[in-house]
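Supplementary Note 3. Input sequence used for the single-chain structure prediction.
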Amino acid sequence: MKIASYNINGIKARLPALMDWLDESQPDVAILQEIKSIDEYFPREVFEDKGYNVETHGQKSFNGVALLSKLPLEDVTRGLPGDDADEQARYIEATVVGDHPVRICGLYLPNGNPVPGPKYDYKLAWMDRLRDRAKVLLAEEMPFLMAGDYNIIPQPEDAARPQDWVEDALYRPESREAWRKILNLGLTEAFRARNAGPEQYTFWDFQRGAWQRNDGIRIDHFLLSPECADLLTDCQIDKEVRGREKPSDHVPIWVKLAS
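The predicted structure, written as discrete structure tokens, is reproduced below.
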């Protein structure tokens, strides 16, 4: 099973590029972030015509996540548990029913800037809730993965110029500590389990020629439960997508799980 994550930065603006990538990459499941669309306006028919089941958790002009799956989706839930007052559309869950059922947790973690401030407090609180959710899923001993745009630079090698991110919410010590607390529950960071070394990024800013200079950061991640990590065969980044017409500022990252 091939499962991909892609922050598309607006479904309307990126639909042609997204459709081209789906045709080329052929993921069984695609986890999308920043769809920037309410559920009613999401162009589900174009994906259904390609054989995908579609589930969305949208929000007008902001945030929004979606699941596209060629396999059945069951027990779909929307919103990260732990704060009934949180209205931001950043989290969706469903079980993909294949040879090995896998619980898919699609997420768009808050950016958190500026620091300090309420947006950063929200980011850290959201990460605490994500850790609590991971604990619940781990106790159920079902294969699951948490994938999406984490807005976290885990290590210095995950940025072309880490010194420029020292005071940014994506790289602050508190942010990376919250990341490690989730990881240290016993999850596997899929990309680093299969790839070592620097200069492997998933995001390049649209400004200052960042793409041309490979001035990127790696902030899109897959975290796998032990049962899911046992199925992992590969994890790669589709970097070439960034160089095409009207791209997102992110590129897709994907895992392959054994059948």
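The CA atoms of residues 60 and 123 lie 20 Å apart. The radius of gyration is 17 Å.
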